[in-house]
């Protein structure tokens, strides 16, 4: 995962501090704003990649209008950031409204750290997709295999059939899922993607099906699950091949009954969602009952769409290169360059183990680094070896990083509460303050 520019827009200093510490371990560029009035000035300087957005700023306000206004402003930006809605008031209509207005995901406070990291990673990965409205056309490529994929999408979209999308990493499975949603009668409702492999086992049910206040120690308020949030729309279950067997059983029950029971609730709720799922597992693994329950597979794979790897549709490569090179030229304000014929030939012959996602990253790199008149193959960094680090530097840097990570983790776990974090680390508050200074936290 590449480092991203992240903005936390939240007036609760403890919450913002905990999120910043957690995220800064992976993404050095994390900014905090406590007032949406400062957002326009910040956007004029640089547009973040991901925004964690609170919905209520004025004390006592719980209608979410301030957050929704900020969301609309963010969505109007030329390269709109991915938005993760944060709310202390686990409020299904607000979460759904945020998703409808273009938020990528939502989290309720206090969050699970693994879930926050996964939400940011997921939002970043999805952000590399074209905006939802253009998703059908964003699925580029006119090779015969892609034409077949498009024909499948067109015929299954209007039905309510569950669709399983198969293919290697980065082939465009999520774009296919979005295209199905957009061509379906659910297009005006939510499309919600959930990375099933990243859901922590302990919170699997509450993440998917929601919970009631008091269902467990940390359940301070009712909270909707992904199923409720996607009601009327499409739930995209990504990476289903990475789901533990216990999770598979719970998901199967929900799909069989078409209803879910939030943790702590005494009766189930019916949920109207269409399920599109995806995995990069090869079919031999997927059909291995030790890996994936056959009865669940049977529920999910009413229709199977196989998205072929890029090396099996090389005819698509020139158009994808042209598309992403001009996309990044515009994004970075770089001059338009031609692709040297030798470079095109090499790129078309490349195996592309990371498929379209890798091609896209290679184009971004070329646009940033190219210095000549045309793009040359070296600009795409296909074979760039990793530079080794001197051992002494590794040792010092590693110790420093370990200490910093331990502090950041404790603070995040303590939701920014210095006394609690100091206790967890077994140091005094004063010592912790000194260390925070030292590490610039
Ligand atoms: N046919 C295509 N046309 C244009 N862009 C594409 C196409 N296929 C994939 N991409 C781009 O490649 C990236 C990866 O696509 P996507 O996330 O849909 O792949 P995926 O198969 O779901 O990946 P993973 O298995 O890693 O989740 C995205 O940036 C997407 O926009």
UniProtKB/TrEMBL annotation:
The keyword DNA damage does not apply. The keyword Hydrolase does not apply. Residues 5-124 form the Response regulatory domain. The modification 4-aspartylphosphate is found at residue 54. Gene3D superfamilies: 1.10.8.60, 3.40.50.2300, Homeodomain-like, P-loop containing nucleotide triphosphate hydrolases. It comes from the Bacteria. One of its GO terms (biological process) is regulation of DNA-templated transcription. Keywords: ATP-binding, Nucleotide-binding, Phosphoprotein, Transcription, Transcription regulation. Residues 139-368 form the Sigma-54 factor interaction domain. GO terms for molecular function: ATP binding; sequence-specific DNA binding. This is Sigma-54-dependent Fis family transcriptional regulator. It comes from Pseudoduganella armeniaca.
């Amino acid at each position: 995962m590449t480092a991203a520019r992240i903005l936390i827009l939240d007036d609760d200093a403890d919450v913002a501090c905990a999120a910043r510490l957690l995220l800064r371990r992976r993404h050095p560029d994390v900014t905090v704003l406590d007032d949406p009035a400062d957002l326009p000035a910040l956007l004029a300087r640089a547009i973040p990649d991901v925004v964690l957005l609170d919905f209520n700023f004025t004390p006592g306000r719980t209608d979410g209008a301030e957050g929704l206004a900020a969301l609309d402003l963010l969505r109007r930006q030329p390269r709109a950031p991915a938005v993760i809605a944060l709310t202390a008031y686990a409020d299904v209509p607000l979460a759904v409204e945020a998703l409808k207005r273009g938020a990528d995901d939502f989290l309720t406070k206090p969050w699970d750290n693994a879930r926050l990291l996964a939400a940011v990673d997921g939002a970043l990965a999805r952000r590399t997709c074209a905006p939802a409205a253009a998703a059908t056309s964003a699925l580029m490529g006119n090779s015969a295999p892609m034409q077949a994929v498009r024909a499948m999408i067109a015929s299954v979209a209007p039905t309510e059939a569950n669709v399983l999308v198969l293919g290697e990493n980065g082939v465009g499975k999520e774009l296919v899922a979005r295209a199905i949603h957009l061509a379906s009668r659910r297009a005006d409702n939510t499309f919600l993607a959930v990375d099933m492999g990243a859901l922590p086992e302990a919170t699997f049910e509450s993440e998917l099906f929601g919970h009631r206040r008091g269902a467990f120690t940390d359940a301070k308020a009712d909270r909707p699950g992904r199923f409720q949030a996607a009601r009327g729309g499409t739930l995209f279950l990504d990476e289903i091949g990475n789901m533990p067997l216990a999770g598979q059983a719970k998901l199967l029950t929900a799909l069989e009954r078409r209803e879910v029971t939030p943790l702590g609730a005494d009766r189930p709720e019916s949920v109207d969602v269409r399920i599109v799922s995806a995995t990069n597992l090869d079919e031999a693994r997927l059909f291995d009952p030790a890996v994936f329950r056959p009865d669940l597979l049977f529920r999910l794979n009413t229709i199977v769409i196989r998205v072929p790897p890029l090396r099996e549709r090389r005819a698509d490569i020139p158009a994808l290169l042209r598309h992403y090179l001009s996309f990044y030229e515009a994004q970075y304000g770089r001059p338009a360059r031609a692709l040297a014929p030798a470079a095109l030939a090499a790129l078309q012959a490349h195996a592309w183990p990371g498929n379209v996602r890798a091609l896209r990253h290679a184009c971004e790199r070329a646009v940033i680094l190219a210095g000549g008149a045309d793009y040359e193959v070296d600009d795409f960094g296909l074979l760039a070896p990793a530079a080794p680090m001197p051992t002494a530097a590794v040792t010092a840097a590693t110790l420093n990083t370990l200490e910093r990570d331990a502090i950041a983790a404790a603070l995040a776990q303590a939701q920014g509460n210095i006394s609690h974090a100091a206790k967890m680390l077994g140091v005094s508050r004063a010592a912790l303050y000194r260390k925070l200074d030292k590490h610039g936290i």
